[in-house]
C-alpha cells in the first residue's frame, strides 16, 4: 500500500484548541491525496497542499455535494443538519451559469463601497458591546459578549430581520451545521421552524419592502428572479454564514493574539498593522472546521494521482495555509505578513461571497478592542481553551478575558 493509500481518521487529532494537527506536515510532504475515514465510516480524499486545494476550489466543474450525488456521508448513521447532509428541500444552484447568476444578484450587497458605508455603524455597535461587557465586569466571555453579537446585529440588519430573534437564529444555525450535536428529530424540527420563519419574512418583504438585501432581490427579480423557495434558501444561508463563522473567527482571532501577548503589544505599538494582522489570523487559524467538500463528477489528476469520479474530496484550507512552499516561516504568526495568499475564503467561482463583510467586521472589532481595552488578556491559559464540538464549523466554546 502506498503512502497516499493509507487511511487515517478524520478529523485529525489536535492537542490544544489553537494547535495545528501534527499530521498536516507529514501529509503535505508525503500525500498529495490522503484517504481518510469520516465519522460516518465512509471514506473521502483529503487535500492539504496549497497548490492542490487552490486548484480544486477554483475548478468550476466541481461543487459541494448535493442530495443527488452519491457522496460520502460525514455524520454517523447519516445524521446531521442540512449543511452536512446536503439534504435540503430548499436548494440553490451550485454550479454553472445559474450559480453565477445567483452570485451576481447577492454580491451587489457585499461591495467594498457598501462595506465602507456600513463601517461607522459597525464601529458604534462594537464600541457599545465592549462598553456593556466592561460594565458587567471581568472575567468575561469575549465570544458571547462581542464576537457573537456584532455579526448577528449586522447580518440581521442586512436581511431586515429583528436581532431580538438572535437566539432562535443561533439554535437553527447550529442545527443546520450539526454533525453530532443534535438528534435527527431536533434537526428536522429546527429546519421546519427556520423555513417557516423565513418564508413568512419573505412574504412580508413582498408586501412591505425596505432597504435590505432580500427586498432588493425581490424588487430586482420581479418577473425573472429567484423563486420564493430560492429566496428563502438565500435568507437562511446568509443568516447562518453571516454570523456563525465570523462570530467564531472573532473569538479565535483575539485568542490567537492574546495567547502570545507580544502580538497584542505589537498591535498596540503599531495599529496600522490591523489589516495585515487580520489576514494573518485568518491564515493562522487551525480550527476552521471540517473543510470544504467537493464532489468529483469526473476523473481528475491531482499531483501524480488520478482521483476517480464519485470521490468526495475535502479541501483543508487551514492545512494549505501552513504550506511552507507558499508561506515563509509558515508555522509562525507574522502580523506584518504580505503578500498573504491564504485560502480561508476559498478560491474561484465558489469563493465566499461575504468575505468583504467578514474582513470589515474583524477589522472593526480588533480596532475597537485595541482602542478601548489595551490591557486585555486571556483569563485562562491558552492551553485550557476548548474547541466547539459537534458542528461543521470550528470555533472556541468560550474566550475568557480580563483587562
Describe the protein's topology.
Elements: E1 7-9, H1 23-30, E2 34-37, E3 43-47, H2 50-58, H3 82-85, H4 96-107, H5 112-136, E4 140-141, H6 142-147, H7 149-159, H8 166-176, H9 184-207, H10 213-220, H11 228-259, H12 261-269, H13 274-284, E5 292-295, E6 300-302, E7 305-307, E8 312-315, H14 317-320, H15 355-372, E9 377-378, E10 400-402
Parallel strand pairs: 1-2, 3-8
Antiparallel strand pairs: 2-3, 4-10, 5-8, 6-7, 9-10
Helix pairs in contact: 5-7, 5-15, 7-11, 8-9, 9-11, 11-15, 13-15
Description:
The chain is an alpha+beta fold. The chain is built from 15 helices and ten strands. The protein has helices spanning 23-30, 50-58, 82-85, 96-107, 112-136, 142-147, 149-159, 166-176, 184-207, 213-220, 228-259, 261-269, 274-284, 317-320, 355-372, and strands at residues 7-9, 34-37, 43-47, 140-141, 292-295, 300-302, 305-307, 312-315, 377-378, 400-402. Strands 1-2-3-8-5 form a five-stranded mixed sheet. It has a three-stranded antiparallel sheet with strand order 4-10-9. Strands 6-7 form a two-stranded antiparallel ribbon. β2 (34-37) and β3 (43-47) form a beta hairpin. α7 packs antiparallel against α11 (228-259) and α8 crosses α9 (184-207). The longest helix is centred in the middle third of the chain and has 32 residues, at 228-259. The N and C termini lie far apart (55 Å). The model has no long low-confidence stretch (mean pLDDT 92).
Amino acid at each position: 500500500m502506498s503512502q497516499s493509500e493509507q487511511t487515517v481518521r478524520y478529523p485529525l487529532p489536535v492537542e490544544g484548541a489553537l494547535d495545528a494537527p501534527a499530521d498536516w506536515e507529514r501529509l503535505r510532504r508525503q500525500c498529495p491525496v490522503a484517504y481518510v475515514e469520516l465519522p460516518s465510516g465512509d471514506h473521502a480524499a483529503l487535500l492539504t497542499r496549497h497548490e492542490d486545494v487552490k486548484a480544486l476550489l477554483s475548478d468550476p466543474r466541481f461543487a459541494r455535494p448535493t442530495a443527488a450525488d452519491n457522496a460520502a456521508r460525514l455524520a454517523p448513521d447519516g445524521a446531521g443538519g442540512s449543511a452536512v447532509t446536503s439534504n435540503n428541500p430548499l436548494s440553490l444552484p451550485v454550479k454553472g451559469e445559474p450559480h453565477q447568476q445567483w452570485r451576481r444578484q447577492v454580491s451587489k450587497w457585499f461591495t467594498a463601497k457598501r462595506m465602507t458605508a456600513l463601517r461607522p455603524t459597525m464601529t458604534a455597535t462594537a464600541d457599545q458591546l465592549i462598553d456593556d461587557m466592561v460594565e458587567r465586569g471581568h472575567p468575561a466571555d469575549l465570544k458571547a459578549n462581542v464576537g457573537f453579537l456584532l455579526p448577528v446585529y449586522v447580518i440581521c440588519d442586512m436581511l431586515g430581520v429583528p436581532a431580538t430573534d438572535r437566539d432562535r437564529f443561533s439554535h437553527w444555525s447550529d442545527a443546520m451545521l450539526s454533525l453530532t450535536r443534535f438528534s435527527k428529530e431536533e434537526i428536522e424540527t429546527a429546519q421546519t421552524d427556520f423555513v417557516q420563519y423565513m418564508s413568512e419574512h419573505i412574504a412580508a418583504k413582498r408586501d412591505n419592502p425596505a432597504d435590505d438585501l432580500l427586498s432588493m432581490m425581490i424588487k430586482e427579480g420581479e418577473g425573472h428572479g429567484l423563486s420564493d423557495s430560492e429566496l428563502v434558501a438565500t435568507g437562511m444561508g446568509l443568516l447562518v454564514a453571516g454570523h456563525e463563522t465570523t462570530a467564531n473567527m472573532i473569538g479565535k482571532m483575539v485568542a490567537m493574539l492574546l495567547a502570545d501577548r507580544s502580538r497584542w503589544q505589537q498591535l498596540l505599538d503599531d495599529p496600522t498593522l490591523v489589516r495585515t494582522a487580520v489576514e494573518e489570523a485568518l491564515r493562522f487559524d487551525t480550527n476552521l472546521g471540517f473543510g470544504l467538500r467537493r464532489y468529483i463528477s469526473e476523473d481528475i489528476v491531482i499531483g501524480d494521482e488520478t482521483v476517480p469520479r464519485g470521490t468526495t474530496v475535502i479541501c483543508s484550507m487551514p492545512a494549505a495555509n501552513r504550506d511552507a512552499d507558499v508561506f515563509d516561516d509558515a508555522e509562525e504568526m507574522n502580523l506584518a505578513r504580505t503578500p498573504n495568499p491564504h485560502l480561508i475564503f476559498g478560491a474561484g467561482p465558489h469563493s465566499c461571497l461575504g468575505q468583504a463583510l467578514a474582513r470589515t467586521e474583524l477589522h472593526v472589532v480588533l480596532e475597537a478592542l485595541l482602542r478601548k481595552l489595551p490591557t486585555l488578556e486571556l483569563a485562562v491559559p491558552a492551553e485550557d481553551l476548548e474547541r466547539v464540538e459537534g458542528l461543521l464549523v470550528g470555533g472556541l466554546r468560550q474566550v475568557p478575558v480580563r483587562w
